[in-house]
Amino acid sequence: MDEVTLGQIAARFGLVLRGDPDARVARVATLKDAQPGSVSFLTNPRYRRYLAATAATAVVVDEAGSRDCPVAALIAANPYAAYARIAAWLHPEPAAPAGVHPTAVVDPSARLAPTASIGPNAVVEARCEIGERAVVGAGSVVGADSVLGADSRLAARVVLYRRVRIGRRSVVHSGAVLGADGFGIAKDRDGWVKVPQLGGVVVGDDVEIGANTTIDRGAIDDTVIEDDVKLDNQIQIGHNVRIGAHTAIAGCVGVSGSTTIGRRCMIGGAAGIAGHIEIADDVVVLGLSMVSRSLTRPGIYSSGIPATEAGEWRRVVARLRHLDELFDRVRRLERPGGSPDPEPS
Amino acid sequence: MDEVTLGQIAARFGLVLRGDPDARVARVATLKDAQPGSVSFLTNPRYRRYLAATAATAVVVDEAGSRDCPVAALIAANPYAAYARIAAWLHPEPAAPAGVHPTAVVDPSARLAPTASIGPNAVVEARCEIGERAVVGAGSVVGADSVLGADSRLAARVVLYRRVRIGRRSVVHSGAVLGADGFGIAKDRDGWVKVPQLGGVVVGDDVEIGANTTIDRGAIDDTVIEDDVKLDNQIQIGHNVRIGAHTAIAGCVGVSGSTTIGRRCMIGGAAGIAGHIEIADDVVVLGLSMVSRSLTRPGIYSSGIPATEAGEWRRVVARLRHLDELFDRVRRLERPGGSPDPEPS
Amino acid sequence: MDEVTLGQIAARFGLVLRGDPDARVARVATLKDAQPGSVSFLTNPRYRRYLAATAATAVVVDEAGSRDCPVAALIAANPYAAYARIAAWLHPEPAAPAGVHPTAVVDPSARLAPTASIGPNAVVEARCEIGERAVVGAGSVVGADSVLGADSRLAARVVLYRRVRIGRRSVVHSGAVLGADGFGIAKDRDGWVKVPQLGGVVVGDDVEIGANTTIDRGAIDDTVIEDDVKLDNQIQIGHNVRIGAHTAIAGCVGVSGSTTIGRRCMIGGAAGIAGHIEIADDVVVLGLSMVSRSLTRPGIYSSGIPATEAGEWRRVVARLRHLDELFDRVRRLERPGGSPDPEPS
């Protein structure tokens, strides 16, 4: 994108402009490091201190923030979303060239839209469908009978096993693996018997799947990721999980098999979610929490413990082991004429 | 597999059939979604409610469950294991074509069984041995001097570094990395000195290794995964770990270096296991637990805390920091004529 | 490396030799399994019991340990670092052949040092720079405008997105992904708006990055990993994180976006570190801890709880939920004439 005027930005994104509509910008920048010709934004109060001295040509802010803005203000009810759209307009994703790279291996039965891009050393197996403007990145492997919808992108080195269907405008980052076998094993006399994993994976539209995230195929039915779900890196999603639309999950979370997560949930980093449970719509789980039972009501849930000085924490842990006993001791003290524990620890 | 009769299933897997031995099935299905022509199973009591209305042609159940079964019953002492075997028979894994794909890069010194399959863009380095019917998936890399036993499969995009030996009938899923350097670093005046990682990785027969799981090579001796070990996705196994036969480990677990885990253990998801410790045979560790000391006796171990409403949990955490002090206060109260803490928190 | 004499080792690494300078060794070994011709080391007290019976030709020890050494002693102030250097000398990393493998795909605009090695099926995109003796492993992808410094190595199947710069003598292990989009999403009325991730990743000299570790590109500015940082496997580093020189992070750690970690820190396995915080130099965080606030002073921090027998732990957890109430009950007891809780739990 070449330079655009603030007037063009305001018109395109429905923002109120306080400042010169003919001023030009070409890129985004942080308040602190902005140079003239860039547009910045203020959404996190911790960066407000950089506003007064910013060299940005314009700042995307809300009405309140605009009062202290020393340069042109692009006023939005939701400045972060407005910034995101402006940044995407100024800095479009580099387009991948249409067509099949000569080193790619594409099965003749695969159906590729003419505008699809299949990168170097990519592999597309039998009967796949790759939609218009969809991208299969370098070294990615698309298993048999899989579908990649229009405008969706696999970055480099993604793996879709067979029968993985991805909707439109979705993005899968490098190292992600969709459709590996779920962890299905049956105990027998002499060891484990593998339970065949026969379902697929279905991913909706506008989904983003982070680097090295894994989503297992269903045991019989499919694993389902609904529209507009956002998954960060290194997440593990077990077989037959269903994740409701607009839910966002931060990095390193694990979701065990057959669990259903509702719509518009937010799951913090490294949370662990047990299998065979249901999480209601609009649930927020804070980072490092363990969810071992169904959560039937919207709300914020947590079980993480912030780190403290290690010696102090060691004493707390030692005491924890005697917590049950402490309750008993207090109960004894509460008795009329309270008889104390004969051997206090 | 085409259709088979219930009589054939009962005979092949040693099950008691209650129903028409000539009825035919072609696939497996859940109780809830089964259509005629499919065989289902009942093992988890939470799905018993679907039994009465199932449209399956037959259901694999135990003796007790068979009484309420409205259709043909295939009665097994261990219905889940029986189901697993039936499903594998009806839905065999698609066979990979024998031979080397023209885009694969195979060192002339590698020894490949004639029935082995080397996929597109795979790389097999010097002096490797690939056994009968073994599969190296698309884009996988097999480092020098590695061995893949008969009937073992690497899915797409697996990496074996040099000197990784895998037994027979084992499966490694996409993104797994076996034999990367262990985390060996020695502190010196000016920073870290890398400790060369010179051992290998030895994986037994009938092992399954999940997507994006990593198993480091040993520092001097090998890292060892014994027969019939089952590892889920995104597990990290440090250098010189030994995991005993038939042990199963769920996703996102980390095992630090030089730790030994016994036979028939079960480790729940996202558990963390410290280095240089020993875990006895038949130990069960529940999900999200931290194992920081050797566990010398069989049993079930845990330290996870289920999430609760966040405001409530915040109050618990605040109190935790004063737990040591609370014990002291109770001890004072227990003294004859108990002298209370002069400054209760 | 062929055989060397103990005298050569002592001279090369500045060690005091107690024993025959003409004795020859060719490899390293553990004290327990050493054969004549090998050099071993003693640094961990738990292995001292193997010293008396070792068959090693020489042992690297400190002055104190050397007194009980039954064979030649190579005496070092820091035996582990000395061992590491000796091992690297005796067992050099196999050199990768200079030049571009015929199956690699290298953009004509990329600048490759003549001694650089580009492996089979690797991809090097436009305008990359690959330094002297640098290695791009089999199947690795180097995105446009990226830099790999002299003597740095990408193992097999690494991905660098565009604009990732790596310094000299650094190592990136298989499956690692550097430069995927950070997790930037803005909530809007109808769902999420992706925030473009426009920064890069900058990695210093002498850095090691473990298998399947992910480091996101910055949102606007870069994500920065300073010199001599050591990252184990399966670590997730969010966008705009900065990690100070000489810091070491064990496996499975997650660091959320915009956090700064100081120099010479040590972070234990599976710790979780929140976003937008600062961790001072010389901080140690023990494994499985949650760091949710800035740590402004050097020290050791922890919040992990060691696993105990599950039934016992269940009682502790049940009591935890009533901890707040217990504090109130004790406070009441402490009042003069203490009025006990009328309904003890």
Care to describe what's here?
- The structure is a homotrimer of 345-residue chains.
- The first copy, chain A, has 345 residues and is of the alpha/beta class.
- Chain A is built from five helices and 40 strands.
- In chain A, the strands form six sheets. Chain A has an eleven-stranded parallel sheet with strand order 8-11-14-17-20-25-28-31-34-37-39, with no helix packed on it.
- In chain A, a hairpin with a 2-residue loop joins strand 22 and strand 23.
- The longest helix of chain A is centred in the first third of the chain and has 12 residues.
- Chain A starts with a strand and ends in an 11-residue tail after the last helix.
- At the A-C interface, helix 3, strand 40, helix 4 and helix 5 of A face strand 22, strand 23, strand 38, strand 39 and helix 4 of C.
The dominant shape of chain A is: flat
The chain-level mean pLDDT of chain A equals 95
Total beta-strand segments of chain A: 40
Radius of gyration of chain A: 26 Å
Low-confidence stretches of chain A: none
Helical coverage of chain A, percent range: 10-25%
Chain pair sharing the greatest interface = A-C, 77 and 78 residues
Figure out the total of helices of chain A.
Answer: 5
Task: Give a summary of the structure in a few sentences.
Three copies of one chain form a homotrimer. Chain A is built from five helices and 40 strands.
